[in-house]
Amino acid sequence: MKKFKKSRRLIAEASRYLPGGVNSNFRLGMVPTPLVFERGEGPYLYDVDGNRLIDYYLGMGPMILGHDPEPVLSAVREQLKSGILFAGQTAVEQEAARMVCDMVPCAERVRFNCTGSEVVQAALRLARAATERLIAIKFEGHYHGWFDNVLWSVGPSSDQYGPVDAPIPIPASAGQDLLAGRHTEVLPWNNLELLRARLQRGDIAAVIMEPVMCNTSAIFPAEGYLEGVREVCTDTGTMLIFDEVITGFRVAPGGAQQYFGVTPDLATFGKAIANGFPVSCLAGRGDLMDMLVADVMHGGTYNAQPASMAAVIATLTELGKKETFDVLNARGNRLMEGIARTLRDDGVQARVAGFPQIFHVGFGVDAPVVDYRSSLQADREQYIKFTEALHYKGVRALERGAWFLSTAHTDDVIDTTIEAVADVAKEI
Fold it and tell me: What pLDDT shows up at residue 396?
């Protein structure tokens, strides 16, 4: 039986210096406790208590090649021989940008940043500049970073969100500048008619969305929805922004826009782009991106840091290989099917849905899940108990239901995971 006593003690001690003992609120409240790790190898994490855990957090998504992929580590080590940061340009960032442009349908130009939150702000600024409009539409349950203007209706309760045809924007944090959201409107996702009616008023600068709802469950767009959004945005002169921080380079080499065949005007990427190194990017139409040259401000001391750019090149080289996605698809499908079958055999009502590389498990779901509101039928409390029990069986899975897969998760690792799920399913 795995034990986590030392992690609990170290988190308590760290709280003297770090609020809650952590550096991101998303690490608070993890079960059985926020863990303290010593190292990662392949699909495994090793914590301070000596536990080895099969990892499906994968750094919240970035570690698509596993925790110690030699091509990435070698590229970074080699680049570091030349220096760390120059406040100037390098050939390595140019090559990284070329690779993104070659892989991503919308990418005629690229700008690199460090976090997804930053590039979302850059995308919105570009959209406002290009349209000379101010209002942006986001959707219930979609997460686009923690800044005040977009942190609205990310996880509202059913007694807060109002009628479906006129949702009430709900701020998600104390201390949030409410005036920062005065140009942000919220709609339910997957409802084309409501969006079309709103855009036809002609005053919307941008529609920003996850092309697949991966932060809330794993909800696919309805048939024709993305195509319809693309059409109405074009007709009304509205910029369409895909937030592909999760889906980018993970669900396909060119992201969800390649997978679904719908090209936005702008898109944001992060996580899997550099396998754990702090890189994000904004990509999009050349005429829009070139506004950054003179009219639109975008900066960042650490943008395109050379070692991180080397990680981008090495990661995208691996993700550009057909065999990489063949492996991810085969193993991810086997894991999804194994979890679904095991839970079903043990009488656990569950929905297992998404992509082989990123899917979601929700307990107690017995009706279609098409948007944020319908996702609330899941029994989150019971699922958290399930993930806590999995930790004691040697499997680390996210409490919010997302499972991320890497190329390091071998068939044997997947078999062990399914066995652990079976053991816990019997217990619950």
Answer: 98
